Amino acid sequence: MRNLKNYLSITLLILGSGFFFTACDDDAPEPENTTELITDVTLVFTNTADNSTVTARAVDPDGIGAQPIQVLDDIELAADATYILTYEILDRQDPTDPEDIGEEIAEEDDEHQLFYGFTEGAFANPTGNGNIDNAGDPVDYNDQDGNGCNLGLETTWTAGSAQTGTFRVRLQHQPDIKTCSTGANDGDTDFDLTFNLIIS
Asked: Which keywords accompany this UniProt record (predicted)?
């Protein structure tokens, strides 16, 4: 009888410990938001006059490895032409089943924004040098998140006169902090790419 009582006591103690550990597991913090895994970024400039396109691509050669994403192409635009800029943003870690990160960014529009920097005067519209250095500087965003704040998966650009310079695009991941005035240094950077810009 004493052995049975001891056995019951040990069983209850084990069950109680299991409940305690389960309860602790339930209180474990949820994983933090992380930046997107992006291996391919393609900028697509569509000329509003004739629907011709100019593309420029950047690729991460080793996915989650140490090498950063690398710009492969220049951006070559026609002087005085107006373009709509859109993106193809992919995770090609599994080349047989690429993941559309652009779609994910659109779904999580309240957590992301694309910021732009460019050579002063390269564009007739927007003017200036972009909004990476100052979030309030002009960029012609065509899309907004559910709160009415800029997203940047679609923008409009009117090239200036013939010249060379640079065009920079930076995607920020801003979960729980994005507002209509947060800038390019707020949150975490998903990618930051600088392309040669040729206007002719």
From this structure: Signal
For residue 54, is pLDDT > 60? yes
**Element at 165 (helix H, strand E):** strand 163-173
From the list 105, 101, 112, the residue with the least C-alpha distance to 63 is 101
Is residue 45 within 8 Å of 83, Cβ to Cβ?
A: yes
Residue 193 has what pLDDT? 98
Query: What is the distance between the alpha carbons of residues 51 and 183, in angstroms, rounded to a whole number?
Result: 32
Residue 166 falls inside a structural domain: yes
Residue 121 lies in a domain: yes
pTM exceeds 0.90, yes or no: no
Q: Are 134 and 184 in contact (CB under 8 A)?
A: no
Q: What angle do CA 139, 121, 163 make, to 5 degrees?
A: 125
Same domain, 46 and 102: yes
What range defines the domain where residue 52 resides?
A: 40-199
Separation CA 169–CA 31 (nearest Å): 28
For residues 4 and 78, state if they share a domain.
no
